[in-house]
Every structure is written in structure tokens, then in C-alpha cells.
Specification:
The chain is α+β, with helices and mostly antiparallel strands. It has 9 helices and 8 strands.
Length: 277
């Protein structure tokens, strides 16, 4: 694994340990890592097996557990020192994690801690190539909500292309995924689905956006769309840390190389594209 990525992970973990009551938002941790917010969470999760939120919670509660055993601080003082606004919210979180209330834990005098190991090589391997991608002008439809339901927008886009005779002007189909589903609430996930467009103005009822192009890591995934999330883990957990490359401040997008109406799910080919600096 590139030492650069290992150092970033360790730097962020150290920062969380040193600032349990501070700003531990995803934006702040991405800044500590000196990495694009678009991709930081995926890298962290792929390499540690935890989301940023899970790591923050685990480390805060470990600090609280230590304070419960090693100090005489009140529950209120401990709650505030590890970033919980009140004893009630702290007690709920602690009890869920330690299967014991803070009071019972202090009385029993037990302590345990686990620290995740970096998970290099723990994901299925997929071929990744570096390409200079062209800028693309897309037309399509926005989608908000679970990425698993984005198919309805694809269906609608295809129907509009069919009824309006747009196929001669439409190239490769694409999907842009602006948020990490393991960090963003499902109802707030944003995406855009459609196809490359070679016509004039965007047809009524369809929106237009662009992909800037440039240096891009392209992972080729073969199989059902339902399995794509594991391929993202491979891209961010296997390939990126050893590549020496830096993600650009831009979302991932997918290019669909064949038609699910014409091939079986096992034969579907998808290119997952990670823009690079």
C-alpha cells in the first residue's frame, strides 16, 4: 500500500483521538487527510472497514470508557469531553456499544478496545486502467434517493429517447453518483442518469450536465448491477492506495457498455470512472 494513504488514515485516526469533543465532521476529517471530500469517505471505509462516523463513535466511546475507569469525572463531564451534548445521548450510545450502562461499566471496572487493521487486498480484484477520458455532454434525469431505485430514471430516459426519436443523437449511457451511500442518508443520495448527447439543445423534460474529462482511473466490472458496490471497495481499497494517484474533486461516474435487455445480468459490463488529478 502507498505509504501516503496509510499516513493519511493514521493522521485522521490520531486527530479523532486527540479531538474527541471537536469538529469531527466528514468535511473536517477530509481536510485533515488532505483529500477530496468526494472520495475520502470511500477510501477510509475501504481501508479500515469502518465508516468515518463509526470510527468517530468508537474512538469517542473508548475515550469515555477510559475516563470512566481511570478518573473520578462525572458522567456529565465525560459526556462533554467526548463530544456528546448531554448524559442521555452519551448513555444511549455507550450502552449500545458496550452492552453496559456507563454507571455499571464503571462499577464493574472492565475495559476493551479494538482498532481496525487496514484491509488492503480484502476485496475482489477487478481490472483498472488509466485513461484520458474525453469531456462528455450528457442529457438525462436527476434522481434523489436510494441508488438501488435509480433504474426508474433509466427506464424513463430510455422511453423519452424512444418516443422522441433521440437514439441517433445519444451515445454511451452514463450515471453520475454524487454521494457516498455509506455516508449520506438514503433519502438524500443524489445522482444523474442519462446518455452522451450529440444534438443541439437538450430536449424538453431532460436536463443537461457535463463530465469534464481528463485523467481517469477506470475499473471494469462484469456482473449484476447489484454487485457494483463491492467493485467500488476494490477500486478505493485495493487499487488507489497502491497506485500513487490522487482523486480529483469530482464525483465518480459509471459508463454502461451493454444493455440489460439484451444480455444476462452476469454479462453486464460497467466501467466505474474515478477522475484523477
Amino acid at each position: 500500500m502507498s505509504s501516503t494513504y496509510e499516513k493519511r488514515i493514521l493522521r485522521v485516526l490520531d486527530y479523532i483521538h486527540d479531538n474527541p469533543a471537536g469538529d469531527l465532521s466528514l468535511d473536517q476529517l477530509a481536510e485533515v487527510a488532505a483529500m477530496s471530500r468526494f472520495h475520502w469517505h470511500r477510501v477510509f471505509h475501504a481501508l479500515t472497514g469502518e465508516t468515518c462516523a463509526q470510527a468517530v463513535r468508537r474512538i469517542r466511546l473508548h475515550r469515555a470508557a477510559s475516563d470512566l475507569l481511570m478518573t473520578q469525572s462525572s458522567l456529565g463531564q465525560i459526556s462533554l469531553s467526548v463530544g456528546y451534548p448531554n448524559v442521555s445521548s452519551f448513555s444511549r450510545a455507550f450502552t449500545e456499544a458496550y452492552a453496559s450502562s456507563p454507571v455499571a461499566f464503571r462499577r464493574a471496572g472492565t475495559h476493551r478496545l479494538s482498532r481496525p487493521e487496514l484491509r488492503i487486498g480484502d476485496y475482489p480484484m477487478h481490472p483498472v486502467t488509466l485513461r484520458q477520458e474525453p469531456a462528455r455532454r450528457l442529457i438525462g434525469l436527476p434522481h434523489t434517493g436510494s441508488y438501488h431505485t435509480v433504474g426508474k430514471e433509466f427506464e424513463a430516459f430510455g422511453a423519452l429517447c424512444e418516443t422522441r426519436g433521440l437514439w441517433p443523437q445519444v451515445g454511451a449511457w452514463a450515471g453520475i453518483y454524487y454521494d457516498d451511500p455509506e455516508e449520506t442518508a438514503e433519502a438524500e443520495l443524489r445522482s444523474f442518469v442519462g446518455g452522451e448527447f450529440h444534438g443541439a439543445a437538450a430536449p424538453e423534460g431532460l436536463e443537461e450536465t457535463t463530465l469534464p474529462g481528463g485523467k481517469t482511473a477506470v475499473l471494469t466490472y462484469k456482473g449484476p448491477y447489484a454487485g457494483i458496490s463491492a467493485a467500488y471497495h476494490s477500486l478505493f481499497g485495493n487499487w488507489l492506495p497502491q497506485s500513487g494517484e490522487e482523486p480529483a474533486e469530482a464525483p465518480c461516474y459509471e459508463l454502461y457498455l451493454n444493455n440489460p435487455r439484451e444480455v444476462t445480468p452476469d454479462e453486464l459490463l460497467t466501467e466505474i470512472c474515478l477522475p484523477l488529478k
